[in-house]
Amino acid sequence: MKWWVILLIVLVVLIAILAVLYFLGNKMQKKQAEQEKQIQEMAQWVTMLVIDKKKLKLKDAGLPAVVMEQTPKYMRRAKMPIVKAKVGPQIVSLICDAGIYDSVPVKKEIKAKISGIYITEIKGIRGKLNQPTEKKKGKFKAWVEKMQEKAGAKPIK
Predict the structure, then answer these.
(1) Domain that holds residue 115
(2) Which of 11, 24, 130, 147 makes a 20 to 30 Å CA pair with 70?
(3) Domain check: are 55 and 120 in the same one?
(4) What is the enclosing helix (H) or strand (E) of 141?
(5) pLDDT tens digits, 37-69
(6) Domain co-membership, 64 together with 95
């Protein structure tokens, strides 16, 4: 009889934790959507020459001190995709969106949509941008796909 009570208490605690996480997740999702809307409103297209791109910690990136003050403490240690570019006559460090970081060409002129110090979108000025090449598959993944094809299953893309 005791183990039923313990199981019931654990189950109630787990349900409470899941409910709290659900509501916090919804709140964070709304906040992120609002921030994304602000970024899109403030964005403008700029021509720039990309000098270098690296994944650096914020303190090593050479960003303004105001950025460091506004960044949450847990994000200061995380590595961010940083692009060093020449915009007009000055060289600036910009934070790049992780989704487009791989397609940013180095030592080429691009047209970028920026909002503050955040690059959200890029276009090539002269010709198309080189799309990032897919990583070579490991032996195990290649073997699994080969076996799936032999078995008649569709390969995983």
Answers:
(1) 43-124
(2) 24
(3) yes
(4) helix 139-151
(5) 988 888 899 999 999 999 988 888 888 888 888
(6) yes
**How much is the pLDDT for 64?**
84
Asked whether residue 56 is assigned to any structural domain, the reply reads yes
**pLDDT(150) > 60:** yes
CB-based contact 123:103 (threshold 8 Å):
no
Residue 4 sits in the same domain as residue 64: no
Provide the pLDDT confidence category of residue 131 given band limits of 50, 70 and 90: low
Interval 108-127: pLDDT, tens: 899 999 988 899 999 887 76
Give the count of domains, the chain: 2
Asked if residue 50 is part of any domain, the answer here is: yes
How crowded is the C-beta side of 104, counted as CA atoms within 13 Å? 29
56/108 same-domain check: yes
Q: Of residues 145 and 135, which shows the higher confidence score?
A: 145
Q: What is the DSSP string of 18-44?
A: HHHHHHHHHHHHHHHHHHHHHHHHH-E
Structure tokens at 25: 């997740």
SS3 label, residue 30: helix
Query: Is the same domain home to 75 and 106?
Result: yes
How far are the Cα atoms of 49, 55, 67, 68, 78 from residue 59, in angstroms, in the given order? 23, 12, 10, 7, 10
